[in-house]
């Protein structure tokens, strides 16, 4: 009986050490980013924000922008993204009033943001994502001045 208890204790110790070593964030990525999207100081959504790696060596991360402007990035189905430098684009369109949430609608839509923000090469948004949890708020303007 003493041997069985000793084996069980050593197995529990191993599992505890493994959990501490691997962490318990539930994400396979070292960085997690969330924030708020604003246009002229007002939260805007729904839509999509895309963080495209500047080196193009990994997949882009995407975040669903909620109606209150908040977002959390995912790469594929996993929360988070690899640390690195990212260029950002956004898509926020006017939804027809009769669209049911989750329903696809193929009718043409009108962008609610200036066109320059819809492309990573013209948005002016570039961020360095560090390991750990980060908040990146993105402020757009309707003025003609490029984003900084």
Structure characteristics:
single chain
Write structural notes for this entry.
With 148 residues, this protein is mostly beta strands. The chain has one domain (27-140): Immunoglobulin-like (Sandwich). Helices cover 14% and strands 36% of the residues. It has one helix and 13 strands; from the N terminus they run H-E-E-E-E-E-E-E-E-E-E-E-E-E. The protein has one helix spanning 2-22, and strands at 31-39, 42-43, 47-53, 61-65, 70-72, 74-75, 78-79, 84-91, 93-94, 110-111, 126-129, 132-135, 138-140. The strands form four sheets. Strands 1, 2, 5, 12 and 13 form a five-stranded mixed sheet that branches. It starts with a helix and ends in an 8-residue tail after the last strand. The model is unreliable at 12-25 (pLDDT under 50).
Helix-and-strand structural type = mainly beta
Q: How many individual helices?
A: 1
| Main sheet characteristics | 5 strands, mixed
What is the rounded Rg?
Answer: 21 Å
The average pLDDT score comes to: 83
Low-confidence stretches: 12-25
CATH superfamily: Carboxypeptidase-like, regulatory domain
By CATH, the topology is Immunoglobulin-like
CATH class type: Mainly Beta
- Helix amount: 10-25%
DSSP strand count: 13
Order of helices and strands: HEEEEEEEEEEEEE
Q: What overall form do the CA principal axes indicate?
A: globular
What is the CATH architecture term? Answer: Sandwich
- What count of structural domains? 1
For the termini, the CA-CA separation is: 68 Å
Strand content: 35-45%
């Amino acid at each position: 009986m003493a041997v069985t208890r000793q084996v069980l204790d050593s197995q529990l110790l191993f599992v505890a050490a493994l959990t501490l070593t691997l962490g318990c964030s539930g994400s396979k990525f070292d960085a997690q980013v969330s924030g708020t999207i604003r246009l002229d100081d007002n939260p805007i959504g729904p839509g999509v924000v895309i963080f495209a790696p500047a080196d193009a060596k990994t997949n882009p991360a995407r975040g669903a922008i909620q109606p209150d402007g908040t977002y959390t990035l995912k790469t594929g189905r996993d929360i988070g993204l690899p640390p690195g430098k990212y260029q950002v684009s956004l898509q926020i369109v006017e939804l027809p009033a009769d669209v049911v949430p989750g329903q696809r609608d193929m009718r043409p839509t009108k962008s609610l943001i200036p066109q320059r923000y819809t492309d990573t090469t013209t948005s002016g948004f570039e961020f360095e994502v560090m390991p750990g949890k980060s908040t990146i708020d993105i402020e757009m303007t309707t003025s003609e001045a490029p984003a900084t």
